[in-house]
Amino acid sequence: MVPIPSQVLYERLGLKGARKIKTGLSTDADTLDKLREQHPLPGAVLAWREATKLKSTYVDALPNWVGADGRIHTHYDQAVAATGRLSSSDPNLQNIPIRTDEGRRIRDCFVAAPGTVFLSADYSQIELRVLAHHCGEGPLVESFRAGEDIHRRTASEVFGVLPALVSSEQRRAAKAINFGIVYGMGAFRLANDLRIPRAQAQAYIDGYFARYPQVRAYMDGACARARELGYSETLFGRRRPIPGLDAGNQADRAAAERIAINSPIQGTAADIIKLAMIAVDAALRGSGARLLLQVHDELVLEVPEGEVEPVRARVVAAMQGAAALAVPLVVDSGVAPRWGGVH
DNA sequence: TCTGTCACG
DNA sequence: ACGTACGTGACAGAC
Q1: Using the CB atom, is residue A92 less than 7 Å from strand C?
Q2: Does the pTM exceed 0.70?
């Protein structure tokens, strides 16, 4: 039983500025957020959506997956995601909430077995490090080798201010730029995300590529190579066929180019954590610790309380040593009796 | 079965 | 003038 937000918002209330979709006007979260200034209803719909999403997908559904052993066992597919990532289903444990306080309460429902705790170990900025490796030199490489705050450094380069003088607003913009670079973003999307004029977003992107020419060269090279070969390739040789790079249609061609840019990055990161899982498994032999989950750049283990520090050291070392890139691989870790508390 | 939406990295 | 960031899976509702 669901209201019909679109009719109420756009026909009865006459709110303006919604994004168009195939079937009419969108009521997605980004659109509703922008409509907040016109009326109190969009905000209420957003709150209602968050609550019902959490209830239907997690609170109501997950208890039905608890088995005779009192635990939930997910299913991992190794041959579904085109980039080489794993995917998780029935239930999906790679999309358990964490971004909101209400969501984190769901993650907190996952409790380690008596006498054990969860150990979570995640790669810091692994996709940007892979990109830095592909670039070989420049501020991205320097920055990771020096252990700097990568977004602060990007802001410093793009906005031409000393790192110590980067404002929180500039750092936020740089973070969005770094995030988007990996996906082959355009000015339209960056402008939308940062709520700035499109011309200003374009200036940011131009400024970025002026300071990071090696990133531009990587992107051009990745497209050219994929166009010649018909596929992209990760650092470890995983291939993804990419049709459409010669499409006459500009939008189709641009979409294929974004895939050619992103797949070697996301796919190499996927290869690295798979190698890490093998190394972690070997490093854990003789201990009472068990690997429970992989969430793309994170491994979650269950560890006897008395073994936490030695296991943590082994896991971090195995993950950091899984591949030798031109920049260090850094792994952060946390320990807690509930999943929501590990970071 | 398709679409829109939204949870995660 | 057009469309507009990568990869997934689950749910509700429309058809």
Answers
A1: yes
A2: yes
Strand B close to A259 by CB, under 7 A: no
The total of other beta-carbon atoms located within 10 Å of residue A329's CB is 21
| pLDDT tens per residue, range A195-223 | 999 999 999 999 999 999 999 999 999 99
Report the distance separating Cα A235 and Cα A190, nearest Å: 28
- Residue A184: CB less than 7 A from any atom in strand C: yes
Strand B contact nucleotides, protein CB < 7 Å: 3-9
Q: Where are the alpha helices (DSSP H) in chain A?
A: 5-6, 29-35, 41-54, 101-107, 126-135, 139-145, 150-159, 168-181, 187-194, 198-211, 213-229, 250-284, 308-320
Residue A221 φ then ψ, to 5°: -65, -40
Backbone torsions φ then ψ of A166, nearest 5 degrees: -65, 130
> Residues A100-117: pLDDT tens digits?
999 999 999 999 999 999
**A56 Cβ nearer than 7 Å to chain C strand:** yes
The token duo for A281 is: 């498994």
* Cα angle A37-A175-A338, degrees, rounded to a multiple of 5: 90
Task: Give the CA-to-C1' distance from A20 to C12 in angstroms.
Answer: 21
